[in-house]
């Protein structure tokens, strides 16, 4: 009987293999259809991708020379990037399955992995440049920008911020290899960036953040108030525990104290503070939808009013959102500089006149970059129109390119 079962199992397995082989030969299920949700492929790849850590990647990035360690690291991810490239032919929207009802406790494990992919792509680009594998660099970069856009398909603030970080990594990788790319490769990179999914903007996340934080907390407090079988004192104790758990230990005391000072001495009073914050969210969204010039003109006054607001909810939500919007403007500037530099390389000349207006405000200009009296490249420099705006630089020489932002760029201009 045992041998019979073994024989039947072997025959079943052989039949399954033959059917599978025949199906693939006939084109059935040989590839994922274009309407596949990209997140399905990403989740699978993130589950099996070789592990790495930020210390290792930082060490590899800090070493400008390509060593055997760089090569070994790059090869570990060959299969990952081969499969990630399939996403570029997908036509469906990316749906990560984020459960927004979890509020501030929503888990987003894919964000760290997505950002790691961007850094890995940058390291691989350095390796492939030494191996004359230009086409592989192009494929990896296009996968990076596609994934970055898909990360920001969810209207969640942290998703959009990770998207900005990934685009900055991609821009840095292109910049440091820009002088080595052929015109054909640059054309493909430019097209790939343009065709990548357009992620959400900061203004698109305001309503989600309202649901995430104030909205979620209000519903939890209402549930506590409705149940409250042990009386208002016990309900208030539960409310304090809930609020404190939403923040880091070093923030929770200050946040809870601010609620108490604002008159939140009962569950009903806490709910009232959250209800009154609805207009603050509306004002934030309207501000974030302004052109960059109008936004930068208003942001300092808005932040000052938020800091002095009697409602702690506004003091709590405003700085994070406005800093994020300022970062969005900076990302737009860097991306525009990158596009200008790519066009300059494609045309074979440096851009002679660049006063490009970005979203109605921020501009950047071009100047020659000289060493020992010789022009060896060009410099693109942003023109901040407000103390809230960072300075950004894009330097390109025949050897490499470099992007600097914030204080680093300011020091470089001294």
Structure description:
There is one protein chain. The chain is of the alpha+beta class and about 425 residues long. The protein has helices spanning about 1-25, 40-50, 55-60, 70-75, 80-85, 110-130, 135-150, 155-175, 185-195, 200-225, 230-245, 250-260, 265-275, 280-290, 290-305, 310-345, 405-410, and strands at about 365-370, 375-385, 390-395, 400-405. A hairpin with a 2-residue loop joins strand 1 (about 365-370) and strand 2. It is globular. Residues about 1-30 and about 350-360 have low confidence and may be disordered.
Structural class: alpha+beta
End-to-end separation? 87 Å
Radius of gyration: 26 Å
Shape type: globular
Q: How can the largest sheet be summarized?
A: 4 strands, antiparallel
State the low-pLDDT regions, or none.
1-29, 351-360
Tally of DSSP helical segments: 17
Total strands? 4
Give helix % range: 55-70%
Mean pLDDT over the residues: 83
Bin the strand percentage. Answer: 5-15%
Strand order of the largest sheet: 1-2-3-4
Order of helices and strands: HHHHHHHHHHHHHHHHEEEEH
């Amino acid at each position: 009987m045992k041998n019979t079962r073994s024989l039947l199992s072997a025959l079943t397995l052989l039949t399954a293999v033959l059917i599978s082989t025949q199906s693939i030969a006939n084109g059935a299920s040989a590839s994922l259809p274009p309407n596949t949700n990209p997140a399905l492929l990403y989740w699978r790849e993130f589950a099996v991708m070789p592990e790495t850590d930020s210390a290792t990647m930082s060490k590899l990035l800090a070493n400008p020379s390509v060593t055997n360690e760089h090569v070994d690291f790059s090869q570990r991810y060959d299969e990952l990037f081969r499969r990630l490239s399939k996403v570029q032919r997908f036509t469906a929207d990316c749906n990560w399955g984020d459960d927004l009802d979890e509020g501030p406790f929503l888990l987003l494990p894919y964000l760290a992995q997505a950002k790691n992919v961007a850094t890995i792509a940058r390291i691989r680009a350095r390796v492939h440049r030494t191996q004359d594998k230009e086409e592989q660099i192009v494929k990896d970069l296009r996968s990076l920008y596609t994934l970055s856009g898909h990360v920001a398909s969810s209207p969640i603030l942290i998703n959009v911020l990770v998207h900005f970080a990934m685009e900055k990594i991609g821009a840095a990788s292109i910049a440091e290899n820009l002088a080595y790319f052929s015109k054909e490769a640059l054309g493909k990179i430019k097209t790939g960036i343009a065709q990548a999914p357009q992620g959400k903007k900061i203004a698109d996340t305001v309503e989600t953040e309202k649901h995430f934080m104030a909205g979620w907390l209000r519903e939890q407090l209402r549930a506590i108030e409705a149940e409250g079988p042990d009386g208002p004192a016990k309900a208030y104790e539960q409310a304090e525990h809930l609020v404190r758990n939403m923040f880091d230990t070093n923030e929770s005391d200050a946040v809870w104290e601010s609620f108490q000072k604002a008159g939140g001495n009962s569950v009903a009073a806490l709910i009232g503070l959250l209800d009154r914050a609805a207009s603050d969210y509306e004002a934030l969204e309207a501000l974030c939808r302004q052109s960059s010039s109008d936004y930068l003109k208003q942001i300092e006054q808005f932040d000052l009013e938020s800091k002095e607001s009697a409602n702690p909810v506004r003091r709590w939500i405003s700085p994070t959102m406005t800093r994020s919007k300022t970062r969005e403007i900076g990302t737009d500037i860097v991306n525009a500089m990158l596009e200008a530099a790519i066009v300059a390389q494609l045309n074979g000349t440096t851009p002679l006149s660049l006063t490009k207006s970005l979203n109605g405000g921020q501009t950047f200009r071009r100047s020659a970059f000289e060493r020992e009296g010789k022009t060896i490249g060009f410099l693109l420099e942003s023109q901040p129109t407000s103390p809230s705006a960072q300075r950004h630089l894009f330097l390109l020489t025949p050897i490499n390119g470099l992007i600097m932002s914030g204080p680093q760029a300011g020091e470089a201009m001294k």
